[in-house]
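> @MW can you paste both from yesterday?
MW: sure, first one:
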Amino acid sequence: MKSNIVSLVNADERQLRIDLAAALRLAARADWHEGVANHFSAAVSPDGRKFLVNPRWKHFSLAKASELLLVDADDPKTMKRPDAPDPSAWSIHSAIHRNLPHARVALHLHPPYATTLACLKDPTIHPIDQVTARFFRRIVYDLRFGGIATGEAEGERIAATIGNHRQVMMGNHGVTTLAPTVAEAFDAMYHLERAARQLVLAYSTGQPLSIMNDDLAEETACEWETYKGAEFSHFAEMKRILDREDPSYAD
C-alpha cells in the first residue's frame, strides 16, 4: 500500500512539473516574461509549503520539467544551496506558499500591457468589455511597492496583501495569478493580460471609457463561471501545440 501511495505522489509531482514547464514555455512565446527574471511556482505537499519553482536565471523558453527546483518554504537554508532560486522568487513564492493555502500555483510576471496598467496612478481594470469584466471585484490592487522583492519583509507584505484573492495587480511592478491548478492560473494570466491590453488600447484613443454599471459588470463576471471548463481546455490545447512543435518541455 505504501509503495502505491509513493507512486501516486511521484506521479502527481511529475504532472505538476510538466504543466509548470509548459506554462513557462508558453509565457515566453507570448512575450510575457522579462529577460531571465520572473517566476512560477506550484505546491507539491498537502500543506503547500514544499513547492516547485523555476531555476535561477534560466530562460523560460528552455524550461524543462526535470530542471524545476523543489524547495521548502520553511527551510531558511534554501538561499545557501548551490542551486538556490532567484532571491525575489524565494521572497515572493515562499511567503505565498507559507501563508496562502489556496494558492497551490502562483505565476508572477511583468507582461507588457498589465505592467503598463500597473505603472498608472489608477491601475484599475475597468469593466469595458466581457474580458475586463471578468476581473470586476475579483482582483486586489497592491499600491505599496517596496522595491525589488529580495527581502523576506517584502514577500510577506505581498502575501498579506493578496489574502484570499486569486489575482493581484502589483503597482509599479507587475501581476500575479494564483489558483488551485496550473491550468487555471495560466488562463487567468492570459485573460488578465488581454484585459489590460484592451484597456490600454481604449485609453490610447483619448475617448472616454464606456464603463459598465456595477450590476452588469457583476453579472458578466459571474457568467465566466459558466465557462470554467474552458480554462482547462485552453491550457490543454496550448500544451498540444507545444507537443507538436517542441515537446522537450516535458523532459
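MW: second:
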Amino acid sequence: MSFTDQIKSKYILMIHFIGIILIFNGIVMLLPLLVLPFYRSEIHLAKNFILPAVVSMAIGSIIWIITRKRKHTDITIRDGGVIVVLAWILTCLVSSVPFLMLGNMNFTLSIFESVSGWTTTGLSVVDVEATAKIYLLWRSLMQLLGGAGIAVIVLASIIGPVGSGLYSAEGRSDMLLPNVTKSAKLIMSIYLGYVFSGTLLYIIAGMPAFDSVNHAMAALSTGGFSTTAGSIGDYNSPAIETITIILMFAGTINFAAHYLLLKGRLRSFAKQGEIRFMVFLLSITLPVVIFLSLRPLYSGVGQSIRTGVFNLVSALSTTGFSTVDYNDWPVFAIFVIILLMLIGGGTGSTAGGIKQYRIYILFRSMAKNLRSFYMPAKSIKEIKVERPEGTVFLQEANELRTGNFIAIYMLVYVAGVMIFLLYGYPLKESMFEFASSLGTVGLSVGITSAAAPPIILWTEIIGMFLGRLEILVVIYAGIKVFKDLKAILGKR
C-alpha cells in the first residue's frame, strides 16, 4: 500500500468513527425527553429535539454503512487528535440546533450555549428563570458527557486496545486499567456513581429533585450550569454548599487518583504531587483572600470563610458555581480568582485550565534550574513526581513541553483579553471573563450575555473550545490535516 493510500485509509476510518459519533449525538439528544412526563406542558418542545436527533442518527448511520468495510488500521495520537477535534465540532453544531429551533436565539447564541455546555464551561446567554425544564436538563446532560469526554465515552469502549491514541488525544494521560476499553468503562462507573450520590445528598439537604439532578451533573463535570439565576447562592444553605464543594473536588481530581481511593490506597493518594500542590495552593490563597480581602466586606468571620472557600474552590476546580456577585469584591480577591482560573484543575479530570500538574512541574523545574547555579551538575537529580501509575522521573524534554504549553496558553489568553479591550471593556473585567472562558470555568462579572457583541461571544467560544481540547490538540490536528491534504494533492 502506497503512502497516500495509507492516508486515505486512515481518513476513511476517521470518517467511520465520526458516523458513530453522530449516531451517539442523536441518541443523547433524545434523553431530555425523559423530563416530559413530569412537565407535560412542555410536550410541544419535543420536536426541537426529536427532529435534529433523527437527522443526526440518519446521517451517522449512512456514514457508518458506507465506511463499514474499511481496512483495519491502528489509531495514533495524531489520528486521534483529528477525530477528537472533528467530533467536538460536529457535536457542538448538532447540539445547538434545539436552541436554534426555539426561535429566540440566533446562530451565535445557540452555538455559544452548546459549546459552553460540552466544554463544561458554564457561561450562559439564556435566562434560566424563563427557560423550559427540558432545555435545562439538556444543558446539564451536555456538561455531564462533555466532562467525561465525547470520544472516550463513545469510541474508546468500541475500538479497544487500538484506541490508545484517541484516549490520549482527549486529554486522558492515565490508564486506570491495562486497556482503554476497561479504563473508559471504569471512568463512567466512577463518574455516574458520584452523580447518583450527589443527587441523593442534594435531595436530603432540601434541594428540589429536578435541581438536584442538574446540579449534581454540573458540579461533578465542573460545568457550573445552574437551574437558578443566582446559582448555588440562591439556596443560601451551608449543607448544599458543602455538598457542592465535595463534588467540585471530586470533579477536579484525576480519575486515576479516584481509583486509588476506591482501592483503599489512601497513602498513595495523599502522596500524589498534584494533590499536594492543590492543598498547598488553597492553604495559601484561602487565608489571604478571606482575612485580607473578604473580612471587611462581610459581617462575621464565618460568612467570610464560607464565601471565600466556596468561590475559590469553584474557581480552581473550574466549576463556575457562585454564591455571591463579584462586582463588589476587592481587586486583590479578583486577581487571585483569575490566577486560580488560569491554573485550573487536575490532569485526567473534568476540569479545565493550564492544569495543576503542569504548574507543579514548572515550579519544580524552576527550583532545579536555580540549584544548578550553585551546585555541581552531578548532584542535580531528575525531577521525581508521584503519579497514580507510580513514581515518574521527568526528562528535560518533558519540562520543555510543559513550559511550551504554558507559554502558548498564556499567549492565547493575552490575545483574547486584547480583543475584549479593543471593544472597550475594562482590563480587570476583560482578564476575568476571558480567563473564565479559556479555563472553561463559567464565572462571570457580567460581560457574557445575549446582548454582548458577537465578536466577544465568538472570542469566548474559541477560548472555551481551545481550553477544553488543550490548544495543542487543535494545532496538531490542523497541521496533520494540512500535511495529509498536501501529500494527497501533491501525488496527483
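> thanks! The chain has a mean pLDDT of 86.
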